[in-house]
Design brief:
258 residues, alpha/beta, eight-stranded mixed sheet, 11 helices, 18% strand, globular
Amino acid sequence: MKIALAPDGAALAWTEKGHGEPLLLIAGQATALDGWGPTAEALADHFRVIRFDHRGIGGSSNGDADRYTTRLLAADAAAVLEAARADSAHVYGHSMGGRIAQWLAIDYPQSVRALILAATSGGKLAGAGPTRDAMEALVSGVPARLEPLFFNPEWAAKHPDAVRTFFNSRASAWAKARHFRASREHDAWSRLGSIQAPTLILHGTDDALTPLPNAVRLHQHIRRSTLVKVPGAGHGLHLDRPETLRWIRQFIAAKAPR
């Protein structure tokens, strides 16, 4: 494990695997870098995959309490790229990680070659928030309640270690609360039009935590974007839908500058 220093001096744990063009993975709310599991392993066959723990998660320190916003967390991601000596990278963000990735593409356009956004949104969208049951499950943090919202039951049964790792991030209640607030208060709608990177939006049609209209609106706001609706997928399609990895490779090969 390596350490990058955030703008406030917080220590950010990061790791890398594979060779080729750099690909930065940005995890979701209160999720550690090892939560990418089989997805990171598969992508490392084609890219230099860089992962990191958000501040307050896993091997990273808490840092300043006032830096828990998606925009400032994007500065953490930029610090990881700098530490990895990656002047630019493809960036794949899931859920809150997708919100952070939006700000990374907006504030550090030279750092983002291609942008992949999975199961995410540009902020609050009237009529397109989580269902009541989904929000209650999210707030509870109980894996047994969350698992059906994220993963296909058959995939989960075949990959119990990946599911367990995904839900068992090491984080304090203090950090989890700040991650939750950062994700909930995200609002980049007015700035999405400035994103220059070619963008692939992946979204499950059955995502109860971030319903599909969020992806449709993202597509409308990001000019160089492609929207792929994944039939029957929930919020964890970055893990349980391995076909998305092929689509990502094809998109980068076709759209991203070298």
